[in-house]
Design the sequence.
DNA sequence: CGATCGTTTGATTACGTTCAATCGTTGTGG
DNA sequence: CCACAACGATTGAACGTAATCAAACGATCG
């Protein structure tokens, strides 16, 4: 685990409140590990004994349907943790997780975390805040899926990416378009066509680079 | 608060682990209250100082859009708590809540709950389990919205209701069809037409009574 | 009885999916 | 180095599903 990974970890709730020694005890013998694109991190239904902190890369979590189709329900990025809550219900992961880029992450043992909480109950609040944020995010997603057409979902997604990145209208799509489409709840074809239509509102796409001419315009199209 | 309400409360996590005295302290001066159909319980964006336990009736929670349209993201029923997590993120409710039937519920003060957790950290695990269950439920919903046509969503809903109720194929729809339609992410018209189509699979509808001739058949239609 | 609300039914439209073909890039082996 | 697969993305045509708009129906209530 590199010094930068340490500092990343120590800036995150709930670790920042624990102090260096406690965190060291928490993750003791588990070093951070490199993960290759496509690597399976866990499967839906696996016993959930750990959760994860991503130092680098992206991880999709998704449900696997009987017919083999995947439905993406979220994508986590560096500096985020995920599956924190799985350990508290039936001890099984409710989704599968797979790396969509090369990256690095660390596993945190769930039992150790429980012990830490029992000793310092305040830590529970951080976890609950994370859960609440996740719930909030899913509410958003449901609202979008229910009442927003594909074009607006795409525009929303681009604007959100823009906010996360430079904010200057120059966007790099962080993963393949098929995955984005799945994430947004549409087919790759619809996503592609949607991007084309957005040309009419000052959006140009080339490869995985997207350029928004006028952020304002797109925003108020989205909030029409 | 009636004795039956007390026993309902004392059978629920996290209260059952707290003991009668602690629970009494937790809800001290707040009696349970009757709620009329249509009563607003809280609005999206309101400061979240309490959460709720429903003794009787149903409560929808939903997002309010700028254009005034409502998008239902969940419906809670008797013997369930809701909004437990809202207090841990920004202190604002992320959704609005409204009673869809007459009913009774009780407010539980968030600060008092926090103190209870600080004294008995195990309680946090119950809350986290509730959050995890909620997350699980929302994952399900997203999967359904993304990949299931209206007919299957309707059939799923009926089968789920059947499981909750008698299990014998006789179902009473617990609230208006327009609300069910919204909950399932479709228009009332589509819901109505869907019910009609299900006649072909042995489902008869009359008023708010639904009868499933052959549960098996419907189930394996859903899981085709 | 007439008014209102919720539900149903009908006709039409629009949207997004599906199926299929093409294009462009990347990577591989001859 | 080039030819050729393999993959991801795009484009096109046709279809199907659900939304929309509009009207009728039925129950409940004053």
Sequence:
């Amino acid at each position: 685990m590199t010094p930068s990974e340490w500092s990343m970890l120590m800036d995150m709730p709930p670790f920042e409140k624990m102090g260096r020694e406690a965190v060291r005890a928490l993750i003791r013998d588990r070093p951070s590990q490199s993960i290759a694109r496509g690597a399976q991190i866990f499967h839906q239904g696996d016993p959930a004994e750990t959760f994860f902190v991503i130092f680098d890369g992206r991880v999709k979590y998704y449900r696997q349907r009987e017919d083999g189709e995947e439905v993406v329900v979220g994508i986590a990025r560096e500096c985020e943790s995920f599956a924190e809550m799985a350990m508290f219900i039936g001890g099984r992961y409710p989704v599968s997780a797979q790396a969509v880029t090369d990256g690095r992450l660390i596993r945190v043992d769930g039992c150790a975390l429980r012990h830490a909480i029992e000793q310092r109950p305040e830590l529970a609040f951080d976890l609950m805040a994370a859960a609440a944020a996740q719930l909030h995010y899913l509410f958003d997603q449901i609202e979008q899926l229910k009442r927003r057409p594909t074009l607006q979902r795409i525009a929303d997604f681009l604007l959100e990416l823009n906010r996360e990145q430079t904010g200057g209208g120059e966007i790099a799509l962080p993963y393949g378009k098929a995955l984005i489409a799945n994430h947004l709840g549409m087919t790759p074809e619809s996503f592609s066509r949607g991007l084309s239509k957005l040309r009419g509102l000052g959006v140009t796409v080339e490869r995985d680079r997207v350029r928004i001419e006028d952020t304002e315009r797109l925003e108020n199209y989205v909030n029409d």
In short: Residues 149-150, 186-187, 189-190, 193, 207 of chain B lie near DNA strand D (CB under 10 Å from a C1'). Residues 48 and 125 of chain B are 21 Å apart (CA to CA).
